[in-house]
Amino acid sequence: MAERQLMTGNEAMAEAAIRAGLRAYFGYPITPQNEVLEYMAAHLPQAGGAFLQAESEVAAINMCYGAAAAGVRAMTSSSSPGVSLKMEGISYLAGADLPCVILNAARGGPGLGNIAPAQGDYFQATKGGGHGDYRLIVLAPSTGQEAAELAGLAFDLSDRYRVPALILADGMLGQMMEPVTLPPPRDPGTLPPKPWALTGAKGREPNLIASFALEPTVLREINVKRYARYREIEAREVRWEEVATEDAEVLLIAYGTMGRIAKTVVRRGRERGVKVGLLRPITLWPFPYAPIRTLAERVKAILTVELSAGQMWEDVRLAVEGRTATPFYGELGGVVPTPSDILQEVLRYA
Amino acid sequence: MPKGKVVVDRERCKGCGLCVAVCPFGVLDLSKDYNSSGYAVVTAVHPEACTGCALCAQTCPDVAIEVYREKAAAGTPTRGAGRP
What we know:
By secondary structure, chain A is α/β, with parallel strands linked by helices. Chain A has helices at 9-19, 34-43, 57-69, 80-95, 122-127, 144-161, 171-175, 216-236, 256-271, 289-296, 312-320, 339-349; strands spanning 3-8, 24-27, 50-53, 74-78, 101-106, 137-139, 165-170, 177-182, 240-243, 250-253, 276-281, 283-285, 301-306, 328-330. Chain B has two helices and four strands; from the N terminus they run βαββαβ. The two termini of chain B are 22 Å apart. Chain A binds chain B through residues 31-32, 34, 114-115, 175-177, and chain B through 14, 16, 37-39, 61-62.
């Protein structure tokens, strides 16, 4: 029988990560993700894992690098300013082809900003906040339940493709308490083997893990091979949800917390006879360009709604390529619009 | 009217405002007083209006609110009196 518990989004992601076989967590406190650290401190050692509160975010991500290189499922979490600090380490993880899960319970920015929910970290998450040609698998949950499911998926995808995965949540999702049905725990011993890991070279050739290749043609080859994996991820791992898109005239595009609010907008709009639908990206990279392009052929307008000044909006416009109108509605600084605010915008294009 | 008193555990409060919305008497509001996590904690702006109904405490998802009810004076009949 499935276990159903009332927990915050942060706790749901932490517990789901432990159940997915996480055995090394390194973090540093910052609101609004402190519950992840607190949960890990209490529960990860019980599962036989290592919890460590690092001396900084930079230290934490580099501890993840070490643990991941040893073949262990590793994770760190933070909120926006702390994730900025991790960016150097994230680029090194990407350059060393190491799997790792990074959780960003994002808050208002830039700078120290505030601790209210925001989506201003989309560019950082999806376009490369660190240096170099690299991608992260970016997952955007919109409920506590989905947060738990995507936490498990993040580890599986990250391991399968040897690409770090980032869960882009926000302060609202992290703090809100909801009933969550948790997946059964997995034994790390039953996970697919990692023959590339640094486990001691007894009876085999030594493995080398590095992000350094001085010879340009060698580094080019490494990058080309990595991009082949990125292309495979783009072909196989795009995830999204559609709500009432069959006959929609105005299509909302929103992810995470805004995706959840947009669902209410669709329900209320439909009650009033407004033909409004929603496409909610679940993977922000790879981004669902193709389904948006298909819908762009038959809707009057695609209204992107974000807790930012318009970041995902750029990807929406890349998908639409002028096929239909692409207005935008956003809120800034941690202000969260109500369903009525958004419905008013929808009515302008219906 | 019965009298009540709301006590907020300021370090547990995340300033979500659910208790503010649910209080029938406008007792609570968000303050400008921030706890160590940075949340504006809820406070009783009209404590005199509290009846001790405890809807706020039942609504609070973080169990941050306790409500105390004034004891009736000895000999005062209480509503729905059953076993002591």
